[in-house]
Every structure is written in structure tokens, then in C-alpha cells.
Amino acid sequence: MTTRKNRLLPLLPTALLLSLTTACGGAAGADGDGDPSTVTVTVGYQSKTINTVTAGTLLRSLGYFEEELAARGKKDGVTYRVEWQDYATGAPITAQMTAGKIDIGSMGDFPLLINAARGKELKQPTRLVAVTGYNLRGGLNTVVTRPGSPLRSLADLRGKKVSTSVGSAADGTLVRALQQAGVDPDKDVRKLNQQPSVGASALASGSVDALSQFVAWPGKLAFEGKATALYDGAQLNLPTFHGVTVREEFAKERAGILDDFLRAQRRATDHLRAHPVAAAESVAKATGLPAEVVYLYNGAHGIATFDPELRPELIAALKADVPVLKAAGLVRDVDVDGFVDPAPLKRAVTSPAYPVSAAAKPELWLKGANTTRVFESPEELLKAVKGTDVRAAYVPDALTGTRWFADRAVWVADGARLRAFVTRASAEKYAGGRPGARVIGYAEALELAS
């Protein structure tokens, strides 16, 4: 008998991945007309996965990669052209890479491992050469339900339908979180393998009970009033990240171009960190996502930290992800140490390393402003909100530090202190351990702050 797990596998493995490769053009080399003086470099990215913008959406809009290649072209007499290919998830990027049709791609940690495994199987090995954005606790993934849903915890998902993208970082969070809650992700939950946009529509229509997805879908749905957070991925306290992968053959034959890409990525990262509001507006314009949602993740105190460095914590997390994918039958094994290659980044980027990001703080973005205000406490933020024309107010979860929209958070009044939480379950847990503390709504929190 075919198990549910095996019925989902055809959406990811070799046969389907290869079938996707007919849709796009070739990778680096002479153009289709055979002109050896023109070289096309093909980059696969995910515009709406805004944790990858420094290697995708933002990098493309800034034109830094093209600038680096133009400088190279003046030296060697070659015209370089970049072809950007946009996808919803990492799986089709892997398909194109293993067919030799994409040179450089960006995707999440779980898809990166599948990328490594497929590359080895199909004799088109790939290498992880940089990180785009990360969260050391796992806050980039969230499980959400419909507003007004009776579901209050992951335990309530027994017997329910949950949409996710199998093999994605969000799927990994869902599996681990369910297991921690004592729920069997294969037997107790009906998991539907859907692209993020399909899952969002399924949640809105009521055809699924919950959605587990990666940045920026949970924040987008919450901002639009279409979802309520059920589980904050940071509760796992396991790092999650997105990174840049390259075909090994390309990295060897076109090492200079890879260096140009990594330098351009670092420049885009510098730009994002120096001009977070402008960067959020740029990404929003390119993707159609609300700028307020982009800033939730990519802002100065956002959920994501942008840094190309292959940090030891992230590589350790990648190794810890392998057993999860093996248990799901999505990979046989992955040689993480052989997949990770820090040499190109060290060779290409000589800029000092970024300092470790400080803990998130409450932040206010007023309409018409091109800067934000940062506060030391939730109470100060709420006082500043009253009587102003707010574009977005952000507040960190009191337990996990995950930043969320203040008006979508669950608040607790604990004496004179006000604390915010991404989920109701966390708020109730916090309040339950403190005599006199109580869960309140956003309107009451505003009143108490004043």
C-alpha cells in the first residue's frame, strides 16, 4: 500500500525536477547565437522569499552584479549578461541547476540539502558558498490559522489538514514542532504539499485548517488580517537560514564571475543594513508585497539577520536537518562538509565581518516617514502610537524575541508591565505563571500604556 509520505514524494524527486528544466534557457556560456564574446550568467531566485533578497530581488534592482560584470568585461573584452529567473520555491531552481541551466541559486536550508543531494545523484554537484539571511532561533517559519479559529496549540492539529511545502524549511519546522508537541506528523495530521500561494488560498477558503510557511507568507497573511499565528518557529530554538548555491562546474570554470556575484551580494547586504526602509520599499515595489511586511522581516530590527558569512551555528543546523529529510525519504544522505565551500566568499569579500545583531526592539514606522523610531520597551512604543498616523508598529515576542505587528500580537498585562507575544498559547503560558497577569487585546494595551 502506498503511504501518504510516498504519495507526496513525486512532487520533489528527480523525475519531476528534470521535467521542469525544459522551460528555461541555458546557463553561463556563449549566447544562443554562438557569439563567444557574450556570456550569459543565469541566476535563480525567489522574489517573494524575501530572506533571499541580497542574492535576488534587491540585488537585481540595485544592479550591483551587472556593475561587477561590466568592470570584468572591460578587462577581458567580453560582454556579460545576467538572466534572472524567478521561482516560488527552491525545488525548480534545483531542477534547473542539476540540468546545467541555472548557474547560481538561492533557497532555504532544507531545499539546500535537497540541492546538494540531487546534484550528487545527477552528477551535477553544487556547493553552498554564502548565506543571505538567517534567524538563530528559527523565527522565519510560522504556523498560522484563520482568524477566529478554535485551534489554540499544535496539539489541536490532530486530525486536521495542514498546508505546507514538503521539503521546505517551513515543513521542517512543522515536523519538528509537531513531534515536540507529541503529535505524529505522518499519522496524526493530514499534510498537504502545496506552494505557498496555493496554501494561502486554501487557508482562506477553509479547505485547510492551518498553514506552515516560510518568510514572508505568515507575516503577509497576518498583516492583511487573513491569519493568526498558532506557532512561532523560534520556539524550536534551532537556526534557520537561506543561502546561495552554485554549480561546482561553474564555480571552477567561472570563478571570477562567482567572485563578482559574492562581492555584489555583500554590497547589497551593506545597502540593506544601511538603508533598511529604502530597501524594504524597493523589494515591495518589485514583488507586490506590502512594504510593512518586508520590513517586519528585513528591517533594522527584523526577524532576519542578513550576513553572507557561513556561520558555524548555521552549518551545524544544516547537519541537524539531514536526519529530518532522510526520515521523510527526501534524501538518502548529504555530505554537508563536502557541500559547504567557504573559499569563494573568503577570496571575493575582504570587508570586515558584521557584528552579531542585538536583540530586537520595539519599532514604529509612521506614514510619510523614511526612517523609523526605536524604543526600549513595549510601553514606550504603545504610548508613541497613540495620536499618530501609524504605518506599522513592531514589537518583539517576550519569550522568543520574534518581531511581530503590535496590533496582531497577543498582549499580557503583568502589573504595570505590558508584554507582547506572537501566539496566544505563549501569552497564556506566560500569564499562567504570574499571579495577577492576564491576556488582553491590543486596544486595552494601548489604554493601559497611556
Walk me through this protein's architecture.
With 450 residues, this protein is an alpha+beta fold. The chain folds into 3 domains: 4-136 and 239-348, 3-Layer(aba) Sandwich (D-Maltodextrin-Binding Protein, domain 2); 141-236, 3-Layer(aba) Sandwich (D-Maltodextrin-Binding Protein, domain 2), CATH 3.40.190.10; 363-449, no CATH class. 39% of the residues lie in helices and 21% in strands. The protein has 19 helices and 19 strands. The protein has helices at 4-8, 14-19, 57-62, 64-76, 91-98, 109-121, 169-180, 196-205, 217-223, 248-253, 255-274, 276-287, 291-298, 312-327, 336-339, 343-348, 378-385, 424-432, 442-449; strands at residues 29-30, 38-45, 79-86, 104-108, 126-135, 141-145, 161-164, 190-193, 210-214, 228-232, 240-247, 305-306, 363-366, 373-374, 390-396, 403-405, 410-414, 417-421, 438-440. The strands form 4 sheets. Strands 1, 2, 3, 4, 5, 11 and 12 form a 7-stranded mixed beta sheet that branches. Strands 8-7-9-6-10 form a 5-stranded mixed beta sheet, sandwiched between helices.
